[in-house]
Design goal:
The chain has 10 helices and 14 strands. Helix 5 links the parallel strand 10 and strand 11. Helix 8 packs parallel to helix 9. It is globular and about 50 Å long. The structure holds zinc ion (ZN) (2 copies).
Length: 269
């Protein structure tokens, strides 16, 4: 059995924890070691309960505290060659990352204890941004955050997953009528920024299959979205789908939004 906890999701900091009860992985380090200790501590867990940190990309809301983690724990930090190159130059990571550096290869990466990970590149305006497909204990867990637009590869991993964590960043109406500068609005919605509610719902319509047990909507914008708009948009997509035996996708797939700036529930997958 796998369990999943979002410690924080959104532009104020991103960090996720995935565990089989024996080993654990931290995905992104956008919250402080102190916060990680507090949130994991609430479940009787701590720093010894994850063995590695995976990095999706080099934006600060994902790596702000990576240097601090490296300095303190020297746990392996897995990232693509390009991202490691960028982090060797980045002010927040360059002094501490070298002893922790572990480079993903293309194809299957065997992390430890039967954890097999593949990464896929998604369009976003960082040095490089990747999603993960993690095969572990009979589950396929797919996480994609900061996704400018869906790619064929992203669809095919999601279509084989039993859990998908996917970005649902903005409501188009709120973004357009909001007070962000025009340039920033364009940066967000023009293919190399973030995935909006509508795009996320369209993606769900395409990748949903009856084996999909959980969808978590992540990286919701504070200014251009609300948890209920994101949820309703994805829920409407699920309501339009059904399995061959006539069950609605809403009955089959659990749908959750992940909170900004605080921890989610600790979900059993
Ligand atoms: Zn982000
Ligand atoms: Zn980003």
């Amino acid at each position: 059995m796998l369990k999943f906890l979002s410690l924080s999701s959104g532009s104020s900091g991103n960090c996720y924890f995935l565990t089989d009860g024996v080993s654990g992985l931290l995905i992104d380090a956008g919250v402080s070691p102190r916060r990680v200790r507090k949130e994991l501590g609430a479940y009787g867990l701590g720093f010894n309960d994850f063995q590695a940190i995976l990095v999706t990309h080099d934006h600060l809301d994902h790596i702000r505290y990576l240097g601090a983690f490296c300095k303190r724990f020297q746990k392996p930090v897995y990232a693509t060659p390009l991202l490691h190159e960028a982090m060797l130059r980045h002010t927040f990571t360059r002094d501490f990352i070298t002893p922790c550096k572990r480079v993903f290869s293309e194809g299957a990466n065997h992390l430890s204890d039967g954890i097999e990970l593949r990464y896929f590149v998604v369009p976003h305006d960082a040095t490089q941004t990747v999603g993960f497909a993690i095969d572990w204990k009979g589950h396929r867990f797919v996480l994609m955050t900061d996704v400018g637009c869906m790619t064929q590869e992203a669809f095919s991993y999601a279509a084989a997953a039993d859990t998908v964590v996917i970005e649902s960043n903005y409501d188009m109406g709120m973004l357009i009528s909001g007070n962000y500068p025009q340039e920033l609005k364009m940066r967000i919605c023009r293919g190399r920024g973030h995935l909006g509610n509508e795009e996320c719902a369209e993606a769900i319509l395409k990748f949903w299959h009856p084996g999909l047990r959980n969808i978590f909507l992540c990286h919701l914008s504070d200014n251009n979205n609300t948890p209920s708009l994101a949820f309703e948009s994805a829920a409407a997509a699920l309501s339009a789908l059904s399995s061959e035996d006539g069950r609605s996708a809403r009955e089959i797939t659990a749908l959750h939004t992940l909170p900004r700036g605080r921890a989610s529930l600790f979900f059993e997958l």
